[in-house]
Design goal:
Shape: globular
Largest sheet: none
Number of strands: 0
Helix content: 55-70%
Number of helices: 4
């Protein structure tokens, strides 16, 4: 018998939901692009948080980006500047 996998609640859902809500109404600034990429990585393959995953897809479309283009741009952003400077930049918060 195959066991159905139940969706999980991500422990950072609440704070991530606030970030995603801001991205939905925001513009594709360097910081917002970095946040979008970070959250795409965090929720990639996560069994739950379907609302956040759907909204991340929506933001990509709003900003006319593919995921590959997003990651290419954010790699450049991170090489050229520090988009999280002054926001706990030393904190590793990817997963």
């Amino acid at each position: 018998m195959a066991q159905e996998q139940k969706d999980q609640q991500h422990p950072l859902w609440k704070t991530d939901r606030e970030i995603v809500d801001g991205l939905l109404t925001g513009e594709a600034t360097d910081l917002n692009l970095a946040e979008l990429a970070r959250l795409r990585i965090r929720y990639n393959g996560f069994p739950g948080a379907r609302d956040i995953q759907a909204d991340l897809d929506k933001i990509l479309k709003q900003w006319s980006l593919t995921e590959d283009a997003l990651f290419e741009r954010t790699r450049s952003i991170h090489m050229e500047s520090q988009p999280y400077k002054g926001r706990g930049a030393k904190r590793d918060d990817w997963s």
